[in-house]
Fold this sequence. Notes:
CATH topology of the largest domain: Aspartate Aminotransferase, domain 2
Oligomer: single chain
Helix content: 40-55%
Order of helices and strands: HEHHEHEHEHEHEEEHHHHEHEEEH
Strand content: 5-15%
Radius of gyration: 22 Å
Distance between the termini: 47 Å
Structural class: alpha/beta
CATH superfamily of the largest domain: Type I PLP-dependent aspartate aminotransferase-like (Major domain)
Amino acid sequence: MHSTGLDRYEAALRDLADQSRLRTLNLPSGLDFTSNDYLGLAASARFAGALTTALARGTPIGAGGSRLLRGNAPEHEALEAAAAAFFHAERALFFGSGYFANFALLSTLPQTEDLVILDASIHASAREGARAGRAARIEAAHNDTDAIHDRILAWRAQGGRGRIWIAVESLYSMDGDRAPLEELVALADRYEAFLIIDEAHATGVFGEDGRGLSAAFEGRPNIIVLHTFSKALGGAGALVGMPRVLRDFLVNRCRPFIYSTAPSPLMAAAALEALAILKEEPQRRENLAKLVAHAGRESKKRCGVTASGSQILPVIVGDDERAMLLAAALRARGFDVRGIRPPTVPAGTARLRISVTLNVDERAITDLFAALAEELDVVSA
Length: 381
């Protein structure tokens, strides 16, 4: 029998299954302890009403072309102007997703003679963007400014004379820990470096009016900040705040921006409404903070798991198969918790990534950690 050419793909999938790393798609079910809808906006009545109003006034669903052709809608311009003012950036540019924005930034802005330093735990989108770009790239140990400093000195000693770009997340998606932003900004200032801060999991949750953990620094000429609308803000897309000249450079040189159909004008209208909600409904952030504190107490008391200090609470299991068994057991009990395995996280650190959102209450959180304590005993037996 002739090979269909699919054999190697079947073999690769079997290998993943043997390692307990085969991914499958599962529909949401049970109480939400896995989404990034931290403020419960995605299905909120106000959000739905804003979209209905936008449709009624004729806002199109599709842009119909790239921003440089006919796809530049008034909704895109209104969002970018409002977001620049809200986040205190000189200019802003709207992208279809956070992944797309990170890729666009790091594949376009650093030049051939430059150096990109990536935090070891940064999102895959930043890694892929840096890989596709012109500049040299290296990693530094997670949240270690001394390691970044050493990388800079070593590169300079080897003759590096270009600009340095440091890329970090303000709040890391798999560990829920924060970047040392004050130290990073000081380091960037010292070496005339650019600092790219991905606020994906902090926007809407932290900072004055939900402006994120970088709120005190955004607007500086060497600071570029990415805010996603797909997590706490309940919609889709990402907004990058930056100096005017960098925005104009992206519009002229960024191939992912130039050659892609513009994001939905309807989603831009939704993002504009999300910014208004952040200003007008601070109780959402306050209520989430209370739930996060409650989750931290319950996780420590019932499971011996120390809280991360954010809405992302990882339970490190270690073994891939054990992590997936625990996640399946919790879903069977009505708690939507997912297991995270390598290569998303380092080998030997497979985990449950528990996300605290306004889609649950204190009782549900207590019940989750009571169930987890029982299942940990069962799986360990």
